[in-house]
Design a protein that fits this description.
9 helices; 7-stranded parallel β-sheet; alpha/beta; about 20% strand; 4-stranded mixed β-sheet
C-alpha cells in the first residue's frame, strides 16, 4: 500500500519502537530521516536506507534540520522511566516537555509538515478503581512526574499544531513489549524478567503482583502509528493497547514456564507513581483509524522470550 506522504521524520527512531516504525515506513515507500541522540537507541538499529541525524530534540537547529522537507513527523523521542520518575523529574520534564515544543516548533518553521503524530502514554491517566477498560475520557490525572510530562506534551502538540494548521494525532501507548527492547531496570517488565532469569537471578515484583496491565506487542503499536498516519482525523487522542488485562504475576509465570525455570519472584514494596489498573478501551482507535491488534500476549510471549534468550 502506497502512502500519501513522501518523507517522514521519526524522532527516537534508533530506539525500540521507533526503529521498527522506521522499517514499516520504508516498506511503505517513504524516505525516512531519524533524529536520535543515541542515549538509549543504537545507530545499528537504523536501517541503511534511512538517514540518521545524531542530535538532541532540545537542539532546535538539529530539530529543524531533521524535519525540513518532511511532510509527516512521528515524535517518539522521550525519557521513559515511570519507576525512576521522581528521581529524574527535572530531566524528564526538560526532555519530554521542552523537547516536544522544540519538535513541533521545528515542524512549524519547516513549512512542509502536514501531519504530526505524538507518542504519549497510559501514564497520563488516573488510577482506575478496578481492572476495567478505560477510554480516552478517563480522568487525566497523572500520578507520576513522567505522566505529567507526557500530558503536557499532548497539550503542546494539540495547541501548537492547531495554531498553524498541522494535522495531529496523539497515541497513548500501553505496556509495549517485544523483541529488541533494551534491558533496563526501569522499563519493560518482560525484558527485565527474562534477562534476570537467564542470568539465574531472582526477579523482583513490586507489590503483590496483582496489578493489571495491558501488554501490547510492538508490532501492533507500530501498526497503530501507521494507521494514524493514513487517517485524515486530526486533534484526536487514541489508546493503543489490546483491551486485555494481564497481571504482573501472570506475566512472570508465562515467562518462567517458557524458560522452564522454577525460581519464585521476590515481592518487594510497591513503587510510588505506578498505576495499579491500566487496561485500554481501544474502541475509538478501532472505529476512527481502523486499529486492530493482532498479537495475544499468552501466544506471542514464547517467541519474544526466545528472541531475548538468543540475543
Amino acid at each position: 500500500m502506497s502512502s500519501k506522504y513522501k518523507r517522514a521524520c521519526v524522532t527516537g527512531g534508533a530506539g525500540f519502537i521507533g526503529s521498527k516504525l522506521v522499517r514499516a515506513l520504508l516498506a511503505r515507500g517513504l524516505s525516512v530521516v531519524v533524529l536520535d541522540n543515541l542515549s538509549v537507541g543504537k545507530a545499528e538499529n537504523v536501517p541503511d536506507e534511512a538517514e540518521l541525524i545524531v542530535g538532541d530534540i532540545l537542539d532546535q537547529e538539529k530539530a529543524l534540520q531533521a524535519v525540513r522537507g518532511c511532510d509527516v513527523v512521528f515524535h517518539m523521542a522521550a525519557r521513559v522511566a515511570i519507576r525512576s520518575s521522581y528521581e529524574f523529574a527535572v530531566e524528564d520534564t526538560i526532555t519530554n516537555v521542552g523537547g516536544t515544543a522544540s519538535i513541533v516548533r521545528a515542524g512549524q518553521r519547516a513549512e512542509t509538515v502536514r501531519r504530526l503524530i505524538f507518542a504519549s502514554s497510559m501514564a497520563i491517566y488516573a488510577d482506575a478503581d478496578a481492572p476495567t477498560l478505560i477510554d480516552e475520557n478517563h480522568p487525566a490525572i497523572p500520578i507520576s512526574p513522567y505522566g505529567i510530562s507526557k500530558l503536557a506534551g499532548e497539550r503542546l502538540v494539540q495547541t501548537m499544531c492547531a495554531n498553524t494548521g498541522i494535522q495531529n494525532a496523539v497515541l497513548r501507548l500501553f505496556n509495549t513489549y517485544g523483541p529488541g527492547q533494551v534491558f533496563s531496570p526501569y522499563v519493560g517488565v518482560v525484558t527485565i524478567f527474562t534477562n534476570k532469569l537467564l542470568k539465574r537471578e531472582q526477579p523482583q515484583i513490586y507489590g503483590d503482583g496483582r496489578q493489571c496491565r495491558d501488554f501490547v506487542h510492538v508490532d501492533d503499536v507500530v501498526a497503530g502509528f501507521v494507521a494514524a498516519m493514513d487517517s485524515d482525523v486530526t486533534g484526536e487522542i487514541f489508546n493503543i493497547g489490546t483491551g486485555t488485562a494481564t497481571t504482573v504475576n501472570q506475566v512472570y509465570d508465562y515467562i518462567r514456564k517458557n524458560l522452564q525455570n522454577t525460581v519464585a519472584a521476590a515481592h518487594v514494596p510497591a513503587v510510588d507513581g505506578e498505576l495499579r489498573y491500566s487496561i485500554a478501551d481501544i474502541s475509538r482507535a478501532r472505529q476512527m483509524i481502523g486499529y486492530t491488534p493482532r498479537h495475544r500476549f499468552e501466544q506471542s510471549i514464547a517467541e519474544v522470550v526466545a528472541e531475548i534468550a538468543d540475543a
